[in-house]
Amino acid sequence: MERTVSFTLNGRPVAVKADEERMLLWVLRSDLALTGTKFGCGEGVCGACTVIVENEAVRSCVTPLSAVAGKRVLTIEGVGQKGLHAVQRAFLDHHAFQCGYCTPGMILNAYALLLKTPHPTRQQIADHMEDNLCRCGAHMRILDAVQQAAAAAKAGS
Amino acid sequence: MAQAEIATSGMTRRGLLGAAGAGLFVFFHAEAQEPARLPVRQAAPVDLNAFLKIAPDGRVTCLVGKVELGQGVMTEMAQALAEELDVAFDAVDVVLGDTGLCPYDMGTFGSMSTPLLWPAVRRAGAEAKAVLLEMASERLKVPVDRLRVQAGVVSESGAPSHAVAYGQLLEGKRIERHIENVPVKAAGFHLIGISQPRKDGPDKVTGQAKYAGDIVLPGLLHASILRPPAHGARLKSVDTSAAEKVAGVQVVKDAGMVAVLHERPDVACDALGRVKADFENPPAGPDDRTIFEHIQKTAPPPTVVKQSGDLAEGERRAAIVEKTYLNSYVAHAPIETHSATAHVEGDKATVWASSQAPFQVKNAVASALGLPPANVRIVSRYIGGGFGGKTEADQAVEAARLSKAAGKPVQVVYSRREEFFYDRFRPAATMKIRAGVDGAKIVLWDGQIFGAGDREGNPFYDIPNVRVTSAGGWMGGNPPGMNPFAVGAWRAPSVNSNTFARESHIDLLAAAAAMDPLEFRLKNLTHPRMRRVLESAAREFGWKAGRAPTKRGAGMGCGMYSNVCNATMVEVAVNRGTGAVEVKRVVMALDVGQVVNPDGMRQQAEGAVMMGMSSALSEEVAFRDGDVLTRGFDSYPIARFSWLPKIEIVLVENPGSPALGGGEPPIIAMGAALANAIFDATGARVLQMPMTPARVKAALG
């Protein structure tokens, strides 16, 4: 049903008039023209569309707009608005990407992990990232990057 | 669109300079890609393959028709140009894959960017610097041999304030000087051979990298296209009335294509679900089990790849081992599906397309729209993975046709289902090998390749009596119906299948000769570079000589692609109960000639380890009667974090060698190394890729 759904997007309030059953991915990419969130499968299995809702990583391709009403949503465009975030910095330092298409989802999923578990073990990182797919095979560097980001946060705290 | 015309093949140097804006243009050569139709100038071919531009502010733009698939071409081109021009790496911007701005390029495939285009960019930089030095010499009234260049500033030796910047030299002027045969630097590199930060990094970690499906234009419509239930199905009737009732929907029917357009992609997709279509299914065809027999039956007559010595003589002397190896259809499965955004306005078209060959797409779009190619501009900036699967770009033609029909910009983004359905798979293949040893020496090799293609079918071992034939392949020219859908190039085409078969068989011969697989290879191999990568890998791996199966789970394979030598050694653990294979460690030694960007090369090799494991152990396209039953990542599992082994890449130094392309070669020996490691662990020989748990279990007996 079409209605106006209000939520906080990357720290700013937004109101979207749309069918609330539509998936958040398309609202972000098309209605709001924020294309950093990627379409990969549309079935919630690849993780390219990962965004953060209230500190939890979710798959925006299977999250209806209604589910974010009144909530805080963070996309890649909202990460590091005042200079690169530690996770982004670490992805750059380790070249933890090749084609870069899965990268926003990877960064947001790692970001969500560090919100909850600031000092994860390598195994915890791998477990948390398991369902984000990368076809270029940057897995080793992604784990290295998330470890560095966690260490940087530790040093800074 | 003057810029678009610049890139049109067949223009002369004068034409190019006439059309281009201010700045310095230097022309260089990449002979292997030179279209024959280019006019001749001064007895040498005029080459518009690439050019560079130095702006009045001193920033350098490198324009090449390659695309950034993630392989790092942007970074290595910047290295080449900055090195030879003596400017800072950060002062170079690279513009890729834009047919309106970049000179013609055949396409980004075959690991050709580094061996062919990269040296050409260096030569361009060297020539540009020589021209600029001449100009500076005139400006400063100092002989060239007393000038030095640092960070794009030319100064007099010993008088650093007596200086002029490249940008100042060029300001407001167009320069047409040309100096023949300027040598590139031989040594003293400040960038080449030293790992550099990826040029595409900042765009990619901030979400600012724009892929073809990220282009937003005013009035943009998203298309969902009606697809058949199977390859070869024929549309009998279609009723779009229910879809047309959805607010904002526009239905386009154009020469057999039925598409639903809407300003929101998901609404277009839902509305397509309301289209009622009746298809006539194709006749029954092969499936993923019967395909190998089908391919052997339908393959064209074989061609001889290699014939030497006397097979009968080999047969007399040899202890024979004969096996048949199979390789299933494999998908490219990039995370970015085929995407395009097209804007057709009057007699001009611009299409942003995820394509590895934008100049080929340009011709395809022009032909589909009935426009001269000069009126079509393709932009392929960032591509979300290609692996050979985005060489063709049907979606770009579809988007262009729809944009023309709708009178608005139109975006086509394949669903995951469409991506699998329309992928041009790595072909299923059968490799029959009859070979034999006399003592420690291979004396016979009789190979028949069906479906894979002939590349690297001829073994590089020293074998006196050899015959290899090949029938059909990835490159096309197969009889209709041999493959029930399109096939094409998949990262190192032919070579994954042929290396799997050859190197598996070499281990069987080593067993027949009662020898250690490494010792056996070295005994039969004089190729010095291949010996060196084998020895380097063995050293790093800590290879322990022994007759397989040693129960250690160690295996090796070696191979060649695009003149790169690769030796891969792996360690696995096999679960005898389930047949599951865990890869614990991978050591890969590579001789890629001169290494341009060591970290970039490692990225490619590490990625190839993951993709190689994935395709060798898990990936297989399921199909029946023209329908592709593999529809998503749930039914097509690819390697993920839990698969990650310990990876060690050894870049074997080869000073003085030209730089070779490293994107494809690292993947080729993974299949055989894994098969041999499974054999070493269990004594079971798996003859078909992917080596799924079920197949490993079956081999265990």
Short description:
By secondary structure, chain A is an alpha+beta fold. Chain A is 36% helix and 17% strand.
Explained architecture:
The complex is a heterodimer of chains A (157) and B (701). Chain A has 2 domains: 2-77, Ubiquitin-like (UB roll) (Roll), CATH 3.10.20.30; 86-156, [2Fe-2S]-binding domain (DNA polymerase, domain 1). Chain A has 5 helices and 5 strands, in the order E-E-H-E-E-E-H-H-H-H. Chain A is α+β, with helices and mostly antiparallel strands and 157 residues long. Chain B is α+β, with helices and mostly antiparallel strands and 701 residues long. Chain B has 3 domains: 2-205, Aldehyde Oxidoreductase, domain 4 (2-Layer Sandwich); 212-280 and 338-413, 2-Layer Sandwich (Aldehyde Oxidoreductase, domain 4); 291-329 and 425-700, Aldehyde Oxidoreductase, domain 4. Chain B contains 19 helices and 31 strands. In chain B, helix 11 runs parallel beside helix 12 and helix 14 runs parallel beside helix 18 (670-682). The longest helix of chain B has 28 residues, at 113-140. At the A-B interface, helix 1, helix 2, helix 3, helix 4 and helix 5 of A face helix 6, helix 8 and helix 17 of B.
Strand content of chain B: 15-25%
Continuous helix count of chain A: 5
- Helix segment tally of chain B: 19
What percent of the residues of chain B sit in helical stretches (DSSP H or I)? 25-40%
